[in-house]
């Protein structure tokens, strides 16, 4: 640790990261071993984090991530949306279709940012806040493809008529963004997605990912 950083805060953040990476929680002893500090230090860290509802302890004494983390997480959407808007605007205007940024919300895909093209006679109405199962629609399927192939770039996903009759979609996952799982895509009224749309969506997803790093 350097003089400009807080060792206690660093340890507290490491505790949260360790707990976030496990589904069954960790004991004080396990955290002590992973952090390389004594149990007394861990007890103090957990007590402080528990006061802020960032962790909770079950009846067996295992520590888990608390609901306070969810409240902090809700503030992430506006920041992500702001960072993504330039790339979404460019994508919508270039393709002439509604562009969207979609993030994972439990078992659903949630549209957190939407940009409609300004020059088309008609386009698909798609609103921020729209959600659908990850297994349906290009946005969700692109995210699932990235999960299934974490070490490679899965490219783009195309769908037709899965969310709205007569509409087709193309989406590519956000890659290499710690803590953010999502995709960038377009939805349009067409029988087939034009050939150039898929690569353009991949480019936009990369631009958004760069803005979020």
TrEMBL record:
Gene3D superfamilies for this protein: 3.30.450.40, Winged helix-like DNA-binding domain superfamily/Winged helix DNA-binding domain (1.10.10.10)
Classification via Pfam families: HTH_IclR, IclR_C
Classification via SUPFAM superfamilies: GAF domain-like, Winged helix' DNA-binding domain
Organism domain of life: Bacteria
Alphabetic keyword roster: DNA-binding, Transcription, Transcription regulation
Domain HTH iclR-type stretches: 6-67
Entry's Gene Ontology BP terms: negative regulation of DNA-templated transcription
Protein name: Differentiation regulon
């Amino acid at each position: 640790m350097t003089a400009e950083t807080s060792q206690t805060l660093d340890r507290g953040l490491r505790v949260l990261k360790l707990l976030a990476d496990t589904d069954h929680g960790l004991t004080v002893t396990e955290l002590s071993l992973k952090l390389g500090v004594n149990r007394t230090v861990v007890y103090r860290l957990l007590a402080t984090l528990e006061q802020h509802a960032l962790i909770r302890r079950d009846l067996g004494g295992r520590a888990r991530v608390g609901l306070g983390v969810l409240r902090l997480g809700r503030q992430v959407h506006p920041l992500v949306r702001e960072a993504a808007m330039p790339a979404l605007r460019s994508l919508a205007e270039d393709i002439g279709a509604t562009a969207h940024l979609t993030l994972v919300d439990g078992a659903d895909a949630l549209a957190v940012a939407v940009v409609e093209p300004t020059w088309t006679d008609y386009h698909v109405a798609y609103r921020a806040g729209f959600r659908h199962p990850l297994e349906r629609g290009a946005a969700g399927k692109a995210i699932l493809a990235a999960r299934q192939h974490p070490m490679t770039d899965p490219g783009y996903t195309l769908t037709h008529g899965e969310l709205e009759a007569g509409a087709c979609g193309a989406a590519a996952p956000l890659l290499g963004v710690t803590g953010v799982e999502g995709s960038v895509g377009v939805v349009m009224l067409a029988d087939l997605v034009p050939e150039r749309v898929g690569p353009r969506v991949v480019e936009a997803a990369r631009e958004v990912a760069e803005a979020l790093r």
